[in-house]
Amino acid sequence: MAQKLSKADGKKLRKTFRQFFGHLCCKITDPVEIAAELQKKGVISISVMKDMIMSPESQHAKTINLVGALDKKIKSHPDRLFLFIEALLESSTPQLQEAGREMSRKAGEVCPDREVCKVPNSP
């Protein structure tokens, strides 16, 4: 059986993601633009994307909602974080590509072996 990502490492990975992603949305670009890239890669559903576009909420509120939705996915499937990173790296926006490289480096510090992250934490 493959080695599991420890609960502590899983939490650290998610905390790193939340801090980094919140910074990314607030400082670099519109969360709807990021959501569009993630939807293309299948990281989030089209309904999440539509909700974000139609929402009258502020950019900050949209960021919080997107981070929350992604965090739930990563909690149950840590390897989704790598899909998220790939979506950023393959983006046509230079800022998102740079953000993807930075997030990849940070995730690598916590979980150097991506295969370990593929094993869900919860039974």
UniProtKB/TrEMBL annotation:
InterPro entries: DEATH-like_dom_sf
Domain of life: Eukaryota
Name of this chain's protein: CARD domain-containing protein
Origin species: Geodia barretti (Barrett's horny sponge)
